[in-house]
Automatic annotation (TrEMBL):
<keyword id="KW-0472">Membrane</keyword>
<dbReference type="GO" id="GO:0052324">
    <property type="term" value="P:plant-type cell wall cellulose biosynthetic process"/>
</dbReference>
<dbReference type="GO" id="GO:0010215">
    <property type="term" value="P:cellulose microfibril organization"/>
</dbReference>
<comment type="similarity">
    <text>Belongs to the COBRA family.</text>
</comment>
<feature type="signal peptide">
    <location>
        <begin position="1"/>
        <end position="31"/>
    </location>
</feature>
<keyword id="KW-0449">Lipoprotein</keyword>
<keyword id="KW-0336">GPI-anchor</keyword>
<feature type="domain" description="COBRA C-terminal">
    <location>
        <begin position="229"/>
        <end position="415"/>
    </location>
</feature>
<dbReference type="GO" id="GO:0098552">
    <property type="term" value="C:side of membrane"/>
</dbReference>
<keyword id="KW-0732">Signal</keyword>
<dbReference type="InterPro" id="IPR006918">
    <property type="entry name" value="COBRA_pln"/>
</dbReference>
<dbReference type="GO" id="GO:0005886">
    <property type="term" value="C:plasma membrane"/>
</dbReference>
<dbReference type="InterPro" id="IPR056900">
    <property type="entry name" value="COB_C"/>
</dbReference>
<protein>
    <recommendedName>
        <fullName>COBRA-like protein</fullName>
    </recommendedName>
</protein>
<dbReference type="Pfam" id="PF04833">
    <property type="entry name" value="COBRA"/>
</dbReference>
<dbReference type="Pfam" id="PF25079">
    <property type="entry name" value="COB_C"/>
</dbReference>
<keyword id="KW-0325">Glycoprotein</keyword>
């Protein structure tokens, strides 16, 4: 008998391991996101002026993603490798993290940055106007296009000089661009023709760059994190079953190297390095069977004659992070007929998709736009009302549960359909 139980739990363990690894293999490695097929971050490099020995460039970063955003701390960073001995004489709207050692022959004051691989970061809000450029100084925050269409662009200007030759016309575009926020990979700089036009005089005149280059960077969750960071659990008014997040969705407690906070334990104090104001402490989640810092619960709450109601709860189990401007992307066929959403903002993600089966939820400003760390509130919730479309709507076969869920652009691990709560057999027609 005992042996039988032991064997049973070993089989379960093996199944868990299998689920854990097969989840990884489901990950797209090329950065393709089925809910946002054109998602990319574009770096536009406009050469505005060329002088003997120097040129000036306007760099604009566009976050062309529907729901993935870049937060502070630490905010975005951008780096590249100069092909000649270039130096950055001057910068507006951003700064190089390190100046590096400048050649004495360059005179005083020395250039802003003399490194072969400069790392550029945004300035903080409230920077003196003399150091600013248009669309700058947001602490490296880039919102998604959906959540705040006014803040998904960042821009800075710089004067680049050549330390050896004195003709800017020889300029070579730098290579090895890196967009810093975990998970991004950038391509080569490509020349764009015609160069960018900039409006002047209220759009009456158009100024044009001398040359324009573009670098495209793509996100891949697989490259950003070693494991998923979010999972989904399910329940319904018509079933006793609660389908929990799959065990080991984001890691296993017994796994070597995994750490988590046991109930009642106080999070260890981390020494914040005084030298880095943008330091982000490593995540620490409460110990659970799924080990995810974010847990989303979808509950089918009620069925009315022509409508049905869902309650969504998002729980933050990370004791070291408040998620500011969080968002939740959901794919469900009934979203085309979403009638009402309580206490969250909502927008359909219709771009490049033939149907309205995907939408984005996010918090209301000053009310629930910050998902506080575990231990303080630690959750946000909403209810929503869907219209039943005759001939399509059903509680059968898990249709009423979401097909995909993303938290802040990270794909959440879903339970397997065979584990979904089911209708009691004798009530197949409930709610129809
Ligand atoms: C990047 O996104 C923009 C805006 O959606 C799109 O026009 C462009 O084609 C995308 N670039 C790539 C290489 O996917
Ligand atoms: C400094 O610049 C001069 C003139 O271009 C060059 O000869 C010298 O090697 C440079 N020194 C260093 C340390 O790079
Ligand atoms: C998941 O883990 C819990 C507790 O760690 C355990 O009781 C349960 O049997 C596990 N479920 C599966 C399907 O292995
Ligand atoms: C999260 O916000 C709360 C309340 O504003 C604050 O007390 C806490 O220190 C914040 N946590 C982090 C990691 O910033
Ligand atoms: C549901 O949405 C679809 C797509 O927008 C629309 O064609 C259909 O008429 C809607 N059904 C109802 C009952 O409103
Ligand atoms: C999706 O919904 C929006 C607003 O509800 C509507 O403007 C748009 O036409 C819909 N698109 C499709 C493809 O049904």
């Amino acid at each position: 008998m005992l042996a039988l139980i032991k064997q049973g739990s070993m089989v379960k363990g093996i199944i868990n391991l299998f689920v854990f690894f097969s989840l990884f293999s489901l990950y797209p490695t090329d950065g393709f996101d089925p809910l946002d097929v054109n998602a990319n971050v574009t770096i536009q490099w406009d050469i505005m002026e060329m002088n003997p020995g120097t040129y000036s460039a306007d760099i604009t970063i566009y976050n062309y993603q529907l729901y993935r955003h870049i937060e502070w701390p630490p905010g975005w960073s951008l780096s590249w490798e100069w092909q000649e001995n270039e130096v950055i004489w001057n910068m507006q709207g951003a700064e190089a993290k390190e100046q590096g050692v400048c050649n004495k022959t360059l005179g005083t004051p020395p250039p802003h940055c003399c490194l072969k691989n400069p790392v550029i970061i945004d300035l903080q809000p409230g920077t003196p106007l003399t150091k600013q450029a248009a669309n700058c100084c947001k602490g490296g925050v880039l919102t998604s296009m959906t959540q705040d269409p006014t803040k998904y662009i960042s821009h800075f200007q710089m004067t680049v000089g050549h330390a050896s030759t004195d003709h800017a016309a020889n300029m070579k575009m730098p290579k090895n661009f890196k967009f810093g926020s975990p998970g991004y990979t950038c391509g080569h700089a490509e020349k764009v023709h015609p160069p960018t036009k900039f409006p002047e005089d209220g759009g009456r005149r158009w100024r044009q760059a001398l040359r324009t280059f573009r670098v495209t960077c793509m996100y891949s969750q697989f490259k950003a994190w070693p494991a998923p960071t979010c999972c989904v659990s399910l329940s319904a008014f018509y079933s006793e079953t609660i389908t929990f997040c799959p065990n080991c969705s984001c890691g296993c407690q017994q796994q070597p190297g995994s750490s988590c906070l046991k109930n009642g334990q106080i999070p260890p104090v981390i020494k914040r390095p005084t030298t880095d104001p943008d330091y982000v402490p490593p995540p620490l989640a409460k110990c659970t069977s799924h080990m995810c810092p974010i847990h989303v619960h979808w509950h089918i709450k009620q069925s009315y004659k022509g409508y049905w109601r869902v309650k969504i709860t998002i729980m933050n189990l990370n004791v070291r992070k408040n998620y500011t401007a969080w968002n939740l992307a959901v794919e469900h066929p009934n979203l085309a007929n979403l009638t009402q959403v309580f206490s969250f903002n909502y927008m359909p993600l219709a771009r490049d998709r033939p149907t309205n089966d995907t939408g984005l939820f996010w918090g209301m400003q000053y009310y629930n736009d910050v998902l506080l760390q575990s231990g303080q509130t630690g959750n946000v919730q909403t209810e929503m009302l869907f219209m039943k479309v005759p001939g399509v709507f059903t509680f059968d076969a898990g249709w009423a549960f979401p097909k995909r869920v993303y938290f802040n652009g990270e794909n959440c691990v879903m339970p397997l359909p065979v584990d979904f709560p089911r209708l009691p057999k004798e009530k197949w027609n409930v709610g129809k």
